[in-house]
């Protein structure tokens, strides 16, 4: 039976109207969600966007050469020509800070990834059995007893300073704290009613773990991962300040701090500017990460 043309056009019109209405509703929800964001989250998000541009395409914000030497402008203070001043070789500090964003963020992202992967591996082992859980819990407690910086120092001392070693060292140092948090999340999910129902229905243990426990336990980790990026950069910069970070002439922020401390009294901007940038990134990742964590946990 052939559908009359008028009826077909009406059906098509209704379908288009439904799609348009759905798109409009989605756009409206997105606008409401954006409007509900606190002002500090907007500011932090804008800051992270600037850092992302600096990491992906630093030439957009600072087209100069970060290694260009100008001995005539040695240790010049902030000015219209050199916004952040210059270093002991006359290199423009603004350009070096912008071009160092990529290395600094790479260390922060790498350290955050290492810490959360290691923490997830340790916490997941506690679900395999009581005996294994006891052993893993003792390992986590022993590692947690060591300060983060001390564990990182041990790793860097054994393998030498480099961006990769720095990321791994900070990640290992941060892992015990995250392991305790992830363990609590996993066991709370494993003891929930929907897991008990899936067990009664005869679902395999692996399926229950992958489909029910992990997705519900790991949702808040999106925010935690974001928050840990800034914290990891702070730890990496602390190691650099102790002379165990990325070696000069890299413009990585920790390396800038390490090089600038020699001229702390004569040219304080060499330490103050990289320090303020590290603080700004840490505050931005913390604000955005805390908001994501609250939303994914069903909070605000």
From TrEMBL:
What InterPro entries would the database entry show? BP-dependent_transpt_permease, MetI-like, MetI-like_sf
The transmembrane residues are 41-61, 105-127, 139-159, 165-182, 221-246, 266-290
Q: Which Gene3D superfamilies match?
A: MetI-like
Assigned keywords, A-Z: Cell membrane, Membrane, Transmembrane, Transmembrane helix, Transport
Subcellular localization is given as:
Cell membrane
Cellular-component GO terms for this entry? plasma membrane
Q: What is this protein called?
A: Peptide/nickel transport system permease protein
**Record organism:** Brevibacterium jeotgali
């Amino acid at each position: 039976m052939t559908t009359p043309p008028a009826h077909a056009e009406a059906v098509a019109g209704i379908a288009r109207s439904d799609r348009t209405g759905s798109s409009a509703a989605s756009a409206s929800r997105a606008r409401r969600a954006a409007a509900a964001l606190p002002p500090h989250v907007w500011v932090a998000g804008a800051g992270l966007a600037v850092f992302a541009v600096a990491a992906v395409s630093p030439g957009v914000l600072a087209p100069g050469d970060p290694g260009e030497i100008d001995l005539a402008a040695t240790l010049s203070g902030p000015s219209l020509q050199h916004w952040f001043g210059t270093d002991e070789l006359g290199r423009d500090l603004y350009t070096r800070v912008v071009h160092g964003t990529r290395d600094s963020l790479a260390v922060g992202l790498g350290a955050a990834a290492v810490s959360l992967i290691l923490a997830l591996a340790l916490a997941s082992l506690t679900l395999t059995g009581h005996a294994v859980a006891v052993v893993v819990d003792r390992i986590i407690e022993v590692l947690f007893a060591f300060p983060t910086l001390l564990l990182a120092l041990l790793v860097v001392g054994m393998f030498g300073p480099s961006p990769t070693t720095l990321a791994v060292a900070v990640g290992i140092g941060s892992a015990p704290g995250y392991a305790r948090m992830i363990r609590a999340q996993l066991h709370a999910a494993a003891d929930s009613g929907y897991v008990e129902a899936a067990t009664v229905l005869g679902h395999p243990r692996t399926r229950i773990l992958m489909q029910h426990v992990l997705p519900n336990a790991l949702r808040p980790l999106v925010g935690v991962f974001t928050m840990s990026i800034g914290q990891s950069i702070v730890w990496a910069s602390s190691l650099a300040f102790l002379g165990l970070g990325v070696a000069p002439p890299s413009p990585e922020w920790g390396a800038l701090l390490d090089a600038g401390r020699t001229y702390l009294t004569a040219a304080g901007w060499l330490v103050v500017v990289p320090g303020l940038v590290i603080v700004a990134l840490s505050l931005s990742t913390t604000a955005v990460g805390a908001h994501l964590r609250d939303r994914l946990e069903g909070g605000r």
